[in-house]
Amino acid sequence: MREEDQLQQPLTPEELMQELRFKATELLLREEWQESVKVYTQFINLCQDQISVKSHQNHPDPDLLTKLQKSLCLALSNRAEALSRLRDLTGALKDCDQALKIESTHFKSLVCKGKILLSLNRYSMALDCFKTAVLDPQASGNLETLNGYVQKCKKLEFQSRTGAFDLSDWILSGFRGKSPELAEYTGPVQIKRSELSGRGLFATKNIDAGTLLLVTKAIATERGILSSEDSGENARLVMWKNFVDKVVDSATKCERTLHLISTLSSGEDEDKLESPEMSLFRPEAEEIGELNEKVDKVKILNVLDVNSLVEDSVSAKVLGRNSDYYGVGLWVLASFINHSCNPNARRLHVGDHVLVHASRDVKAGEEITFAYFDVLSPLSKRNEMSKTWGFHCSCKRCKFEEEMCSKQEMKEIEIGLERGIDVGSAIFRLEEGMRRWMVRGRGKGYMRASFWAAYFEAYGSEKSVTRWGRRIPAVDIVVDSVAEAVGCDERLLKVFMQAFRGNGVSLVDMEKSLKLGRGVHGKVVKKQQALRSLLDSGTHDA
């Protein structure tokens, strides 16, 4: 046989496997994830074929089969690592499970699976993986890292189970370093049909102001600094495209993500959509079986048009370094929260997480709602703003004010304020009118919220306060009634705190300010010193 023919002879399966293993390992070390997946797939297929062939021989070699099984186990584990780096978590998890079927305590597969489960917020299962991995002799060189994962899983599992979050230390540090690691949490809420629009989120028990309702991590976010109006608009368009691409990519790589997105409305046939079970949104939700759903980019785009949230909004506060950025994201469970002009919830943005809490007391069965726009505005302006959102608000407050605004005196007060009459005079007429019309309870809060700009100006002017004195209600009375009607707001805090700052603050006033603060920032700020820090910054920024 000629030398050229010898050189052209095909490689034996063993030789080809050796070559593929070497090439795949090199690509993995160079962090060329996509290429390493391709080569590992070739190796895995060949290895599985060889195991099948060898095991069906008349006298199979047990040592050779064991060797092939170990090679297959390691290759699956390495491919899982590469797939997880590419955020193909579904594929990575399947590879880990296959590897662990071959060797149930395979160290590398356990660690890889633990990391994937942790990123999927399945804390208990991730903890089991890391606990088993710690017992392996190979763990000795990585014991500190593995114990770190164990402690992290325990902490997040506790948060997820109890809703016990505390951002105090991070706030007191001046938001230094990375934002705190947070678990996903679902509190006393459920999804049902809404009288406001389609489906909504409802309280399953009585809830105090400041109580945490849910914590959820974004499917994807996109952030950027907007400089001027023109470039800002262009930047928004670029950010939106990047954001859509991220969501599509996440849905393509994770079946659970695709399924969660599929529960959201695309703006059509809302009445035909089912209300998903809350168990779907809990971190330890059971694994979803094989889905027949395909990624439909047009449908996802429609879903994002209806459900994406902007971080810097009237019902939200961004904590930490994100506050310098314009940000948009998709938080699935929070997307079920409808608008109301008498909202009862606010949200904090911390890193990629959103924390939703009650901004006033909520009764069992009451719908959880956000303010999509500024609700400390008259009905006419709110109607204009709701049009830009593509809906007409028919909440209790709007219905109440439609009746009130039909009164001639109400029209005169509104026109007078537009023409610049004395705000104290306008407030006096409004308060006298409500007394004559026998407006009580939340009705007073609704009306005062509608004319908040006038109250804000009056209480901020020493001249108005001196001139009108007791003929207009005290600051704390107005703030309390507005907060009870439309939830707490930083502007209410600002007026309340500035009114008492010069005269010294009593214990009663301090307690009231802390209660308002919990309505704005939630009970996730446990230490009073941290809450006061936020209150002080809020009164300067509001």
What does this structure look like?
Residues 187-373 form the SET domain. This is SET domain-containing protein. With 542 residues, the protein is an alpha+beta fold. The protein has 23 helices and 12 strands. A 5-stranded mixed sheet has the order 1-4-11-10-7. A 4-stranded mixed sheet has the order 2-3-12-9, with no helix packed on it. A 3-stranded antiparallel sheet has the order 5-8-6, with helices on one face. The chain is elongated. The termini are far apart.
Count every helix, treating DSSP H or I runs of 4 or more residues as helices. Answer: 23
Shape: elongated
User: How would you classify the helix and strand content by structural class?
Assistant: alpha+beta
As a percent range, the share of strand residues is: 5-15%
Distance between the termini: 89 Å
Low-confidence stretches: none
Which strand order spans the largest sheet, edge to edge or round the barrel? 1-4-11-10-7
Gyration radius, in Å:
30 Å
Mean pLDDT across residues? 89
- Estimate percent helicity: 55-70%
Number of strands: 12
How would a crystallographer describe the biggest sheet?
5 strands, mixed
